[in-house]
Design a protein that fits this description.
By secondary structure, the chain is α+β, with helices and mostly antiparallel strands. About 35% of the residues lie in helices and about 30% in strands. It has four helices and ten strands. It has helices spanning about 35-50, 65-85, 135-145, 160-180, and strands spanning about 5-10, 15-20, 30, 50-60, 90-100, 100-110, 115-120, 125-130, 130, 150-155. The strands form three sheets. Strands 1-2-4-3 form a four-stranded mixed sheet, with helices on one face. It has a four-stranded mixed sheet with strand order 5-6-10-7, with helices on one face. β8 (about 125-130) and β9 (about 130) form a beta hairpin. α1 (about 35-50) runs parallel beside α4 (about 160-180) and α2 runs parallel beside α3 (about 135-145). The longest helix has 20 residues, at about 160-180. It starts with a strand and ends in a 16-residue tail after the last helix. The model has no long low-confidence stretch (mean pLDDT about 95).
Length: about 200
């Protein structure tokens, strides 16, 4: 069974191609033009053990918002596509990941219903290089909307903005990896409704 998703998204602002293999080995090839965002997508692929290819060209002469948003939308759509009919998946998972003084706790339900709860410390530095730290929540909102999953992300403490954001992506990677794994004892879709 191949669990691969491929999405191309083209607008007047961006051109995005995302490919993801849920049963990969963590091979990542990412280029969005936003260095820190590339670093976060690399964390997502490597720690999720997803083979991930992302190629984005966007209107970076304006700012990075459209590039980041459209990439997250395409990534969510590709993830949903790769999940297919969800037969045999674990469905629910959580992961906690520290990065020095920061901790992220992520819980996911591959439910077919988009919902995001996101909490991180107040007073975080506004920028990491060219990356606007307020985009982290927007990335997750965009991903959740297209992946059609319920996602809870909580960073109870942290000081360094780089660490606060990075541990979220690492924990997300682990939770998505565990939730999307195939459970050999699960013979159908893990829902009393019979569909996700």
């Amino acid at each position: 069974m191949s669990r691969v998703g491929r999405v191309e998204r083209t607008t007047k602002e961006t051109s995005v191609t995302v490919e993801i293999d849920l049963d990969g080995t963590g091979r990542v090839d990412v280029s969005t033009g936003v260095g820190f965002f590339d670093h976060m997508l690399d964390q997502l692929g490597r720690h999720g053990l997803f083979d991930l290819s992302v190629k984005t060209e966007g209107d970076l002469h304006i700012d990075s918002h459209h590039t980041i948003e459209d990439t997250a939308l395409a990534l969510g759509a590709a993830f949903r596509q790769a999940l297919g009919d969800k037969v045999g998946i674990v469905r629910f998972a959580d992961a906690s990941v520290p990065l020095d003084e920061s901790l992220a706790q992520v819980t996911v339900d591959l439910s077919g219903r988009p919902y995001l709860v996101h909490r991180e410390p107040d007073g975080m530095a506004p920028m990491i290089g060219a990356y606007d730290t307020t985009m982290t929540r927007h990335i997750l909102e965009s991903f959740v909307a297209q992946a059609q999953i319920a996602l809870h992300v909580h960073v109870p403490y942290g000081r360094n903005a780089h660490h606060i954001v990075e541990c979220q992506f690492k924990a997300l990677a682990r939770a998505l990896r565990y939730a999307s794994e195939i459970d050999p004892r699960q013979t159908g879709v893990p829902s009393t409704k019979g569909a996700l």
